[in-house]
Amino acid sequence: MAIDSLPGDFFHYADALTDDEQKVLARVREFCRTEIAPIALDAWTKAEFPHEIVPRFAALDIAALPYEGLEGPAARRTLIGFLSMELAHADPSLNSFFGIHNGLAMGSIDLCGSAEQRERWLPAMGRMEKIGAFGLTEPHGGSDVAQGLETTARREGDEWVLNGEKRWIGNGTFADLVVVWARDVTDEPEKGPVRGFVVEQDNPGMTTTKIENKIALRTVQNADIVLTDCRVPESDRLQEANSFKDTNKVLRRTRGGVAWGATGTMMAAYEIALDYAREREQFGRPIAGFQLVQDLLVRMLGNVTASLGMAVRLAEMQDAGTAKDEHAALAKEFTTTRMRETVSLAREVVGGNGVVLDYGVAKYFADAEALYSFEGTRQINTLVVGRSITGLSAFV
What we know:
Elements: H1 19-46, H2 54-58, H3 77-90, H4 92-112, H5 115-126, E1 132-135, H6 145-148, E2 152-156, E3 159-170, E4 177-184, E5 194-200, E6 206-210, E7 222-233, H7 244-279, E8 281-282, E9 285-286, H8 291-320, H9 325-350, H10 361-373, H11 378-390
Parallel strand pairs: 1-4, 2-4
Antiparallel strand pairs: 2-3, 3-7, 4-5, 6-7, 8-9
Helix pairs in contact: 1-3, 3-4, 3-7, 4-5, 4-7, 7-8, 7-9, 7-10, 8-9, 9-10, 9-11
């Protein structure tokens, strides 16, 4: 089987997938066309999450794919990446919802949980019967959260007592499980280790409040979370999370996912601009026939192609076990920067209609701003790469 490449996949990178992988991609593409596309704009405009889509999402059987033993061998990161790109191509918000659940939440349990914890939580999450969220960012801690984590955890017998606040927690308003990262102050109040905890949504010590008035990824339900003497049993502490280095294992993996999401976002914007340019007439001919418009389209296509190539190579390195922090950081920095430029060029091609949601580009233009910022800002990721290539740290 050979799946048709999207117009933005100019070098036909999808041909590198096996026949079985292409069948999975084709199934997800059809789901995007029939289930996501018809509701994406309405959900985004209302800033509401379409909960009715979750059972149909679950029926795709893709949430368990990255994890060994849930439904057989773990799928290649290349396939996982193409699925993320396909979802983002349809709607960056629903791709973010899925990435938070499948990458950050499930990934934390997979990488930092014990065998018993993986068995307890991952199968239900893989079936999307339980949805996960990831609580790391804080009101006062984004880029410096590794050093400045303010949420605390103190052990009292067989329980831990969590206190603090989290912000920008995607899926936070409705997730069944929230992975919360906190500093252990039991023995070292100032410099204790960072630990991870799985907090059930109905825990009386945790309250969630939806963040309103966003201009990007409006369908994603980001929450402010307050933990007030939130009691969590020792059995719900991620047993293999003993420092921020363990947290970073999760982020290293998911930054690669952001690169795929950014690529899907800019690819969709490029394709909308291309179709519009072929149809829109000025001075008696389609604007696609003008040199300046073709220049913009080619610049966009170049950005998409370079980003997709980088994402594919990073996925190959992840599968080979050779990917490092700096590789994921460069991919995140490069693709989201190119995405930001590409959606801007697409809006330029569509002209005044580019600021109207009905024409498609405006939503991708707005959503790109969130992808550009989360999972490490451009500046922080450049410092990770810069440290690697120079051997000198420029972090303050």
